[in-house]
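Form 7-S
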Amino acid sequence: MVNKREVLANVLDKTGCNRILQRVGGWNGLLVLNYHRIGQPEDSLFDRPLWSATVEAFEEQIRYLSLNFDIVTISDMSHVLKSKSGRHLMVTFDDGYLDNYEFAYPILKSHGCPATFFLTSGFLDRTATAWWDEIAWMVCSSKKSKIEADAWHDYVLTFDEPDRNLVIHHLISVYKSLPADQTEDFLNGLADSTGSGRCPTEILGNEWMSWDMVREMDGAGMSIGGHTVSHPILSTLDAETLEFEIGHCKQRIEQELGSPISAFSYPVGSRTAFNDETKACLKRHGIQHAFSYYGGFQSSGETDLFDLPRVAIETDVSMSRFRTVTALPQWYSQKYQSSEAIL
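Output:
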């Protein structure tokens, strides 16, 4: 199975078309690349597709960006979005994983490449857990070969061995579809049906940066933004919970940094993950820019400051494809599904 976009990316890269497009400038605007985790996921019991690149791949990507683009951060946004020309690129990270500090930050610093880190404050405070990682842990830790039908799915889920990734992906999708007041019941039910129980908080807690690490990165020129307290899907929340997730996240980050933040990224980030009420809440709390996560790039012209698009960088993005995304974001920045293929 060969992916059509990958084939075209290889052709453009090998024929030198990407280099020509980089020199002549095939687009104007803002292209935002988003990462989650850096490193090797093979031995992890957590959500493996969340790893965006190996250390080696990330270094190659950042080296390429630093040599070919004007890399911007949140402090540059007002100027960049008003500009009618120029190719501006932003590197962002979501959640606040420890490997962002251990692996990504040294590479970014060594190449003089600033990045923006959107933090889930409850993860750093150890008051919340990453539900997607807990789902993966429960499935990977289960001694069973399947999950029987229950209130959440009316059919048997047979584990796809050895990684069980398809079942994990399915269960994460189920979680995303639930009203906020049902998600905890779903996790408790999965703990029972897998026989794994809930993931111990000390295991999940070791995955996150400390506030001292965040302050170090902030002082070194990295930008910091908010990503809620517990990473819920904001469009599913009642008004009081929405206020807490946005307001307390912003308050905690500012408390730790000693300075205000003005940017936010939406958990999950799909078109249905946020709405007008979400945007209004962000504005009330002084947020000026908010980032989605369903693909696309911001061309010069009219801009929704509370729906700035980002492109997902994932481990199956080859360097040829990476160069093509940055050369032709108008073609390659839409949300990419690795299952898209030609027969």
